[in-house]
């Protein structure tokens, strides 16, 4: 050892390795040396490892299906590696994955359709009430009975059809009035209006006395006929010979709307005029008493609807407590009071407004605001509330598109739609359309409700035909439970 360095340490000298032909089996082979990257993590070699303060990334795997980490070097880069991956099941298409990290949207395969169909089978369907129109008219969208009506008044604001409590349907045809017993199908000629009295425009059976019917004409003549004996009981004549619009009964009192805007009241027990109300400024088209008889709704050509307090004999707007004046953008003929909520009134306007509005007599403003508005863009000719369901039926005529170009007069042009000349039923209070059935080839002029509130009779002046529709069903009465003492004890 010299200078602290051991002298017996042997150092092998390094020499440069040279290439010799014996170091390879084929010196002229162009085959490349295979390099395996499966065990090499390139990311860890190039980028530094995460610091302890960095957030940890959780694997996106199922609790039962592990999530395979992404492979930096894919196994199918060459034909040879692809064959090996197929043999061992390592190809990407055959690897079990919980989610596809490269796809943000689920694929639209057949399995997705199966999942949707299976979910629809498990979903609970909403239960339809047997009294609803969906279960009755929706199941069979056909009329039950069709009758001819030659000479039906062409006036769209006429009331040529009425249905009595005795299940008799009366219709005005030309100058004659006929009625048919729907139970026996027997048709009877009631009367023929004289030429000096005009043509019949409105017929209305009396509610409390179903064998009596009021016949009103275009020259202000109002006649009360007894269908049992076929004779006229009363006859009233307007002093101005004005045409009669809508009529309605309240007990023995008949309300009549006239062309000059006057409401007149006739009592079946008196020969003279009972009362008179002057407030409308145009022809009165609709007259309807509330179910309890306390209120009267009247509508005119200018789209104004008044609510009258029959106990005070004046409109509700004069009471300064409840709304009594309703304004529409078109003539109003359709009026209907709700049978299960007497304060609700439904009104329907014609061209060019075409809306159904629902009001209440409990409004606090002199000009009432609508609780619900249904913009249908179709002429509404009549309205009927369902007696056993929260539904509202409307009959229609011409339809139009409010966004289409208008005619020279600035009004919408008629366009056929699903509501044209149809019977439509709406849910209340949502206003959702339940169904719509084409009723006639022309506009539905008028309709009336059956005594049990399940069927509707429609009439079309263009077709000169009438059709009866089964719209609703009466609810089934629950079976009365039998007493536990029945059959065991009795009175001797």
Automatic annotation (TrEMBL):
Q: Report the record's Gene Ontology biological process terms.
A: anaphase-promoting complex-dependent catabolic process; positive regulation of anaphase-promoting complex-dependent catabolic process
| Ranges where the CDC20/Fizzy WD40 domain occurs | 147-469
In alphabetical order, the GO MF annotations are: anaphase-promoting complex binding; ubiquitin ligase activator activity
Q: Which Gene3D superfamilies match?
A: YVTN repeat-like/Quinoprotein amine dehydrogenase
Query: Mind telling me which residue stretches traverse the membrane in this protein?
Result: none
Q: Name one GO cellular component term.
A: anaphase-promoting complex
Repeat region (WD), residues:
277-318
List the SUPFAM superfamilies hit by this protein, alphabetically.
WD40 repeat-like
Which keywords annotate this record? Repeat, WD repeat
Q: Which InterPro entries match?
A: Cdc20/Fizzy (IPR033010), WD40/YVTN_repeat-like_dom_sf (IPR015943), WD40_CDC20-Fz (IPR056150), WD40_repeat_dom_sf (IPR036322), WD40_rpt (IPR001680)
> Which family is this protein grouped under?
Belongs to the WD repeat CDC20/Fizzy family.
Q: What is this protein called?
A: CDC20/Fizzy WD40 domain-containing protein
């Amino acid at each position: 050892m010299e200078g602290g360095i051991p002298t017996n340490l042997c150092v092998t000298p390094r020499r440069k390795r040279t290439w010799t032909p014996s170091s390879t089996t084929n010196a002229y082979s162009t085959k490349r040396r295979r390099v395996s990257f499966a065990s090499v993590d390139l990311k860890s070699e190039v980028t530094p490892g995460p610091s302890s303060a960095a957030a940890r990334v959780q694997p996106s795997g199922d609790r039962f299906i592990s999530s395979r980490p992404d492979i930096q070097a894919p196994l199918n880069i060459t034909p040879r590696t692809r064959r090996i991956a197929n043999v061992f099941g390592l190809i990407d298409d055959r690897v079990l994955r919980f989610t596809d990290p490269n796809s943000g949207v689920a694929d639209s395969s057949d399995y997705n359709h199966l999942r949707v169909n299976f979910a629809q089978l498990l979903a609970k369907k909403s239960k339809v009430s047997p009294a609803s129109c969906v279960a009755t008219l929706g199941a069979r969208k056909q009329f039950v009975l069709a009758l001819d009506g030659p000479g039906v008044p062409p006036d769209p604001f006429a009331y040529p059809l009425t249905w009595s409590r005795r299940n008799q349907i009366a219709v005005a045809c030309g100058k004659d009035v006929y009625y048919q017993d729907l139970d026996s199908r027997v048709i009877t000629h009631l009367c023929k209006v004289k030429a000096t009295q005009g043509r019949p425009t409105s017929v209305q059976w009396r509610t409390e006395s179903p064998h009596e019917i009021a016949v009103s004409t275009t020259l202000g003549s109002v006649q009360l006929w007894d269908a049992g004996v076929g004779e006229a009981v009363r006859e009233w004549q307007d002093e101005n010979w004005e045409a009669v619009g809508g009529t309605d009964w309240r007990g023995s009192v008949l309300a009549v709307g006239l062309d000059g805007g006057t409401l007149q009241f006739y009592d079946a027990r008196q020969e003279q005029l009972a009362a008179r109300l002057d407030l409308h400024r145009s022809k009165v088209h609709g007259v309807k008493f509330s179910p309890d008889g306390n209120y009267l709704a009247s509508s005119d050509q200018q789209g104004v609807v008044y609510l009258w307090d029959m106990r005070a004999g004046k409109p509700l707007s004069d009471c300064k407590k409840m709304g009594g004046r309703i304004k529409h953008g078109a003539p109003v003929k359709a009026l209907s009071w709700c049978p299960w909520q007497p304060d609700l009134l439904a009104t329907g306007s014609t061209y060019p407004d075409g809306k159904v509005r629902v009001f209440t007599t409990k409004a606090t403003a002199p000009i009432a605001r609508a609780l619900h508005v249904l913009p249908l863009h179709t002429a509404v000719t009549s309205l009927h509330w369902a007696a056993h369901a929260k539904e509202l039926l409307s009959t229609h005529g011409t339809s139009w598109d409010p966004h289409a170009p208008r005619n020279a007069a600035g009004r919408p042009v008629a366009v056929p739609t699903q509501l044209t000349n149809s019977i439509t039923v709406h849910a209340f209070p949502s206003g959702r359309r339940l169904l719509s059935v084409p009723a006639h080839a022309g506009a539905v002029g008028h309709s009336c409700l059956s005594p049990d509130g399940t069927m509707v009779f429609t009439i079309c002046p263009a077709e000169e035909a009438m059709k009866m529709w089964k719209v609703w069903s009466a609810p089934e009465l629950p079976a009365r439970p039998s007493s536990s003492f029945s059959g065991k004890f009795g009175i001797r």
